[in-house]
Amino acid sequence: MATRLTTAARRGIARPKVAHRARRAGREALTSAIPLLLPALAIYALFSLLPIFLTFWLSFTDSRGLNTSASFVGLSNYGRAAADPIVWQSLVHTFQWLLGHLLMAGGLGLILALAVSRLRLTRVVFRTAFFLPHLVSLAVVGVIWANIYDPFYGLLNTALDRLGLGALSQGWLSDPLLVLFSVNVASSWQGFGLYMLLFIAGLQNIDHSLYEAAEIDGANGWQQLWYVTLPGLAEVMTFVVSLAMINGLKGFATVFVMTNGGPFYQSELITTYIYRLAFSMQDHGLAAVLCVLLSTLAIGITVVFNHWRGRLAR
Amino acid sequence: MLRRTLLASAAAVLATAGLASGAQAQTLVMWGPEQITEPLIAELWNGLKADFEAANPGVTVEFMPPTGTISNGAVQSAIQSNAGPDVILTNSGIARVTTVVDAKLVAPLTAAYAERGWDKQIYPWLYAELQRQRGGEIYEVPDGLDALGVWYHKDMFAANGWTMPATYAEFLDLLGKIKDKGIMPIAIGPRTAGSAGHLFGNMLQSASGSEAVGKAVSGELSWTDPSMVGGAVRLRELVDKGYIDKEMAALDLDGAARLWFNKRAALFVAGPWFTANARKAEYDLANAGYAPMPSDLGPGKPTGGVGWSWLVPANSKQPELAMKWIDFILSDAVMKKRAENAASTMIYPRALDGVNPPTAILGDIFAAAAAGVGYNPSVYLPASVVDTYFQVIQGIISAQISGEDAMAQIEAKMAEVK
After folding, report:
1. Mean pLDDT per 10-residue run, chain B (418 residues)?
2. Which CATH class is domain A77-313?
3. I need a surface site. Which of B2, B236, B250, B328 has the fewest CB within 10 A?
4. Which of residues 263-302 of A touch B (CB under 8 A)?
5. What is the nearest CA distance from B331 to chain A, expressed in angstroms?
6. Angle at A21 between CA A20 and CA A22, to 5 degrees
7. Predicted confidence (pLDDT) per residue in B58-108, tens digit
């Protein structure tokens, strides 16, 4: 009994000592880690946290530019944003753009990945060829496609005319119903190559014996796609969807180059409107509100999507 | 001792020489001119640069090719980058200049006008106009004036027996004849903001007169006033009648100009600067005709205003040198040299005696503008309104909105400014 008490007592004395040692080791590790982390933290604070803070602050001011003195105006800019029909219109366009990018760039990436994966000798050639547009800057893509869509000299309408399909010729960038779609096609053409590569990587990770088993069970091509390939790509697909959504929200360059948001706001995205407000009209307060809105949207969509993905995985 | 003295003297001489050369070696970074890559323009400006450098030993002028204008934020970005220009030549007008003045990006030049005699080196009416715009404070030195009117092909008109009419009713008749020939009557590229405004400003002035337009841009007259709406309604009628193709809403200035240079379109609204575009497109300028937009209110006149100005950024590293450069530009010798040069593309800010325009079309434009020019709203409207102004023009050209709706939207923006 006495021995037990002694042991217990020893343990009682020893525990705080161990904990103390662990705490001290933790403190020492932290002390040595801080100087190592400081440069990275400083850069992060300077280039990420500070701009975020400044943008948030600007959204409560009547700032007209960096050189001006800005006064605090409370929620006035938020009220102006809510009352501005162009904000709502560009918000709707942004969602349409996002969905279009997801379907066109993501969808085309998946289809081409499936097609290219079935090739043997020419796989590398096609994979490279399809990826090439992704290496072209979006601004250059915009210029190329604006010329393709030119209503009077453009390749598309000229080709349709030559093929006797002149009735299908359109004002691709002037028709209010077509313009956003047309620009999105150009943007998706630039983007699908990356998604294709990701899907190809995913396809290579699917165990080939699953296809053999499916074949023995008599599954045809479509059934193999539906029951083996697509479930096998689930992880990659969720990643591609996240990436495509974020890229969709960032849509700017092609719209800016090809239409500058027109005609009459019909291709205006939140991003292009932010640019015009900030740099053409010098309305930095309202532009900052839209930046806050866009960031909130990006965070919200990502959180909701990841939550949904987590539930689906369970 | 002697050796020590000699060494000290040599060191002093070297140090003085170093300081002197350091003080004199200065670089003036100039934003502009536009189209510097065009050989004729490059030749002219490189000549001016050499003259200035020769007159100011130790000074080097560096051209910074413009990536845009105030309208698309390029000038603001260049100034705010703090690695930007010391003096700027850019598209101006009160709307654009107000944008950079409100953002405190450019320095006031009012004192320099008086001290350096610039007030005597531009038209008195122009100086008075500049003084009126911002309560007496002036931030720009006009480099050139715009005079926007209708360009046509002389050979096409001669072959078809067409002439530029005097009244709007006759103008409509002409547009009908052109369309019947299978030619597009008017080309416009509203994707380029300025291009949209060139035609619309002409239509407004033709329908309402320059006085009414002047009052509207300064907020004295409502844009929805019946005396102002006519031009916008007429523009929509031109679209509805097929005189302006709806698909042109997708074109920029270059795209629309291409239609005109290739003679697929008969008419184009532009200013003297269009001579540069024509040269680039290898269009025979002798075949170009120019006339003010016909009006039922009397003899037509071009629209315009200050087209290009010199600005000195608030963060210019060489403000004094920038002033010297402007002195140099305003000198008789430089102004005459520019006006007579083949690269000349504008009307100069003061009367120049004995100057022969380098092309016949410029002579026509100078003659049309001799009695003064009207208002091009693109350069007079406040910055927050001008964006709406350009958008509603696109709305009319793409047949999305009526003329009345367009003017109501401009007026709503004007009301916000008031």
Report:
1. 52 48 77 85 94 96 91 84 90 84 92 96 89 90 94 98 96 98 97 90 96 93 96 98 96 95 98 92 96 93 91 96 97 92 87 86 89 88 87 96 97 89
2. mainly alpha
3. B2
4. 263-266, 275-276, 278-283
5. 33
6. 90
7. 999 999 999 888 877 789 889 988 778 999 999 888 778 888 898 889 999
User: Which residue in B245, B258, B394 is closest to A264 by CB distance?
Assistant: B394
pLDDT of the residue at B18 = 47
CATH 3.40.190.10 fits B146-305+368-417, yes or no: yes
Distance from CA of A38 to the nearest CA of B (A): 27
Instruction: Indicate the domain borders of chain A.
Output: 15-58, 77-313
Residues of B in contact with A145 (CB under 8 A): none
The string of pLDDT tens digits covering residues A183-198 is 999 999 999 999 999 9
With a threshold of 0.90, does the pTM exceed it? no
The count of other CB atoms within 10 Å of the CB of residue B131 is: 15
In this structure, are residues A96 and A234 in contact, taking their beta carbons and an 8 Å threshold?
no
How remote is the C-alpha of B322 from its chain's centroid? 21
Residue A264 and residue B391: Cβ atoms within 8 Å? yes
* Residue B384 to residue A281, Cβ atoms within 8 A: yes
Of B72, B77, B391, the CB nearest to A265: B391
- Cα separation of B330 and A106, whole Å? 59
Q: Are B102 and A149 in contact (CB < 8 Å)? A: no
Residue with tokens 């001669």: B158
How far does the CA of residue B259 sit from the closest CA of chain A (Å)?
8
**Considering only CA atoms, which of B387, B205, B181 is closest in space to residue B294?**
B205
Mutate to test the interface with B, among A76, A169, A282, A283 (most CBs of B within 10 A): A282
Indicate the DSSP class of residue B285.
G
**Selection from B296, B295, B327 nearest residue B310 by Cα:** B327
Model pLDDT, residue A68: 61
- Position A66 scores a pLDDT of 62
Q: Does the CB of B191 have a partner CB in chain A at under 8 Å? A: yes
Computed on alpha carbons and rounded to an integer, the radius of gyration of chain B in Å comes to 24
Helix (H, G, I), strand (E, B) or coil at B58: coil
CA angle at B297 for the pair B296 and B303, rounded to the nearest 5° = 100
Question: Residue B107: which residues within 8 A CB-CB, separation 6 or more?
Answer: B139, B312, B313, B314, B316, B319
Domain regions of chain B by residue span: 26-144+306-361, 146-305+368-417
Question: Contact B271/B191 with Cβ under 8 angstroms?
Answer: no
**Residue from A254, A264, A276 to probe the interface with B (highest B Cβ count within 10 Å):** A264
Instruction: Give me B414's structure tokens.
Output: 């004007």
Phi, then psi, of B401 in degrees rounded to 5? -135, 160
Residues of A in contact with B72 (CB under 8 A): 279-280
E runs forming strands in A224-279: none
pLDDT in the model for residue B247 = 95
Query: Which residue matches tokens 């479509």?
Result: A222
Q: Which residues of A touch B249 (CB under 8 A)?
A: 171, 173-174, 262-263
- Whether the CB-CB separation of A254 and A141 falls below 8 Å is answered with yes
> What is residue B20's predicted lDDT score, i.e. its pLDDT?
46
**Per-residue pLDDT tens for B356-392?**
888 999 999 988 988 788 999 998 888 778 889 999 9
